[in-house]
């Protein structure tokens, strides 16, 4: 076994043990998708989950990417790739399966789009939406071999368009967008980080159950803000309300009005 193959095997084993991943299909997808294919050429600026500053890898050997580390996309803006263990956990929680239609909002450079592509298979589809024009162009290039992935440059609050089994949001918002909820098929799942202006908040999972929705807090997170995320104290209070209320018990509601659950 080569050094790179051994590093990939250790990477998958680390994520599996840390997050108690229950899906063998997800572990197989993580093993199959080369992380280095979704980044610029190294050396890379990387940091651990708790790290405050980046360190530069000693060279451009992809073996350095097969650890549970963040990799800088734009260090100046503190924009990084998603932490592998964290997003593997979320994907596992969403129970993404074969033939599912997945909407990904904030796909970055497309690494997790490729993982999702493997999970949904040839009869499924991934619509990867990215608001940043340059990132979307790079993601489209990297994802060329993944024929069931469509990359869209645009607003993730407007470009969903079709019904989805899973919507996964990779950026912080003050509340779930009504369009995301309306786009969920029966039994569909939405995962969205609801954060304040300091990027801190909680990830919320919302499941469609008939004509109603059920929301529950998953865990705390710190994440890059989404395009169009409100920048007022009211937005912060709305995000805080969701975090506190969904942590106490599952929230059941029919829709969203002014950012809050409604039975209207």
What can be said about this structure in brief?
The protein has about 260 residues and is α/β, with parallel strands linked by helices. It has helices spanning about 5-20, 25-30, 85-95, 110-120, 135-140, 180-185, 235-250, and strands spanning about 45, 55, 70-75, 80, 100-105, 125-130, 150-155, 165-170, 185-195, 200-210, 210-220, 250-255, 255, 260. α1 crosses α3 (about 85-95) and α2 (about 25-30) crosses α4.
Could you explain how this protein is built, in words?
With 264 residues, the protein is α/β, with parallel strands linked by helices. It contains 7 helices and 14 strands. The chain has helices at 3-19, 24-32, 84-93, 111-120, 133-142, 178-183, 233-248; strands at residues 45-47, 55-56, 70-74, 79-80, 101-105, 125-130, 149-153, 164-169, 184-195, 200-209, 212-222, 251-253, 255-257, 260-262. The strands form 3 sheets. Strands 7-6-5-8-9-10-11-12 form an 8-stranded mixed sheet, with helices on both faces. Strand 6, helix 5 and strand 7 (149-153) form a beta-alpha-beta unit. It is globular and about 60 Å long. The termini are far apart. The model has no long low-confidence stretch (mean pLDDT 93). Pfam families: PCMT (PF01135). Its EC number is 2.1.1.77. It is found in: Cytoplasm. InterPro entries: PCMT (IPR000682), SAM-dependent_MTases_sf (IPR029063). This is Protein-L-isoaspartate O-methyltransferase.
């Amino acid at each position: 076994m080569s050094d790179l193959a051994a590093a990939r095997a250790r990477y998958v084993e680390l994520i599996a043990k840390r997050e108690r991943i229950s899906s063998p299909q997800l572990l197989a997808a993580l093993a199959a998708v080369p992380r280095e294919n979704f980044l610029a050429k190294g050396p890379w600026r990387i940091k651990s989950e708790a790290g405050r500053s980046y360190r530069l890898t000693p060279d451009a050997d992809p073996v350095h990417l097969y650890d549970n580390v963040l990799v800088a996309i734009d260090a100046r803006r503190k924009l990084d790739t998603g932490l592998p263990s964290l997003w593997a956990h979320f994907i596992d929680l969403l129970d993404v399966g074969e033939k599912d239609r997945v909407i990904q909002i904030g796909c970055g450079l497309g690494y997790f789009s490729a993982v999702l592509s493997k999970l949904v298979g040839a009869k499924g589809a991934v619509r990867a939406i990215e608001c940043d024009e340059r990132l979307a162009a790079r993601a489209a290039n990297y994802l060329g071999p993944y024929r069931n992935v469509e990359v869209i440059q645009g607003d993730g609050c407007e470009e969903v368009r079709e019904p989805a089994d899973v919507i996964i949001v990779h950026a912080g918002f003050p509340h779930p967008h009504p369009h995301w909820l309306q786009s969920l098929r029966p039994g569909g799942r939405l995962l969205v980080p609801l954060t304040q202006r300091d990027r801190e908040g909680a990830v919320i999972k919302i499941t469609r159950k008939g004509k109603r929705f059920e929301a529950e807090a998953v865990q705390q997170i710190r994440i890059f803000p989404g395009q169009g995320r409100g920048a007022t104290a009211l937005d912060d209070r709305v995000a805080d309300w969701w975090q506190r209320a969904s942590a106490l018990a599952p929230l059941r509601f029919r829709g969203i009005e002014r950012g809050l659950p409604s039975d209207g």
